[in-house]
Structure formats: C-alpha cells, structure tokens
Amino acid sequence: METFLVIAVLVIVGGIVAGIIASQQEQEALSKMSSTERAAYLKKKRNRQASLTWGSLNPALVCPHCQARGKVRTKGLKVKKGISGAKATGAVLTGGVSLLATGLSRKEATTQAHCDNCNSTWHF
Predict the structure, then answer these.
(1) Which one has a higher pLDDT value, 53 or 74?
(2) What is residue 17's predicted lDDT score, i.e. its pLDDT?
(3) Would residue 61 count as lying in a domain?
(4) Where would a tag sit more exposed on the chain, N or C end, judged by fewer CB atoms within 10 A?
(5) Is residue 91 domain-resident?
C-alpha cells in the first residue's frame, strides 16, 4: 500500500513539474513573438480551448438570446433525464442489485449550444 502511495505522489508531482515547465516554455516562446504573432497564437489557443469545451462553431445557427449568426458552438451530449421505467422495474425484480450496475436514471442524447457573443448556453 505504501508503494502505491509513493508512486501516486511521484506521478502527481511529475505532472505538476511538467505543467510548470510547459508554461515557462510557452511564456518564453511568446516573449520572442511579435505582437501580431502573439495575438494570432493566443486567438488560436482560445478557439482550440473553446472547441474542446463547447464544441465546434456552427455557422448556420442563430443565437436566440442575442440574434448573432455564426457565433454559436454546438456539441452532442448525453444527459440524465428522470427515472427510467425499465430500470425501475428491473430493480424491483432483482431486489435492487441491478441498480449497482446501471443506475436508475435514463440518459438522453441532446445538443448543447453556446454563444460566443453573449456567453449563454442552452440545450435542445
């Protein structure tokens, strides 16, 4: 058990050190760039992060809140929605054992949309 804890601590510390080194290298690279190169790099980095978080830009969608076109990002999600009748029936029949494996709520596919202009998020 002690060996596992030592290894876990080393992995965490290694990750933190690697993050610090990467940050310092990025700062050094940014300091060598011109202002236009730096602005383009930071914009690309923000777009990459936004794509990971909110999904890709959908040029056809119009934001229902601010009416901006081409600023809406969409991403497919599975969200929990209420209690599944089939799972509840299975739980009753198995004495609750099936709940350990499947849970009680059902998951439903939905689309998350986020507007970069007004920063609102909604699902449809």
Answers:
(1) 74
(2) 92
(3) yes
(4) N
(5) yes
Neighbours of 19 (CB within 10 A): 10
In a domain, 46, yes or no: no
Is residue 105 one of the residues assigned to a domain?
yes
In whole angstroms, give the CA distance from residue 29 to residue 20. 14
Q: What is the pLDDT of residues 21-61, one digit of tens each?
A: 988 998 888 888 898 998 888 888 888 888 878 888 888 88
Structural domain containing residue 74 = 56-123
The answer to whether residues 61 and 74 touch, using CB atoms and an 8 Å cutoff, is yes
Please give the tally of structural domains in the chain: 1
Q: What is the pTM of this model?
A: 0.52
pLDDT band at 13; cut points 50, 70, 90: very high
Cα gap 71→63, rounded to integer Å: 8
Distance between CA atoms of residues 85 and 77, nearest Å = 22
Task: Kindly provide the residue ranges of all beta strands, DSSP E only, lying in the chain, ordered along the sequence.
Answer: 56-57, 72-83, 105-115, 121-123
Q: How far apart are CA 104 and CA 96, in angstroms?
A: 10
What Cα–Cα distance (Å) separates residue 105 from each residue in 44, 66, 78, 79?
Answer: 39, 34, 12, 10
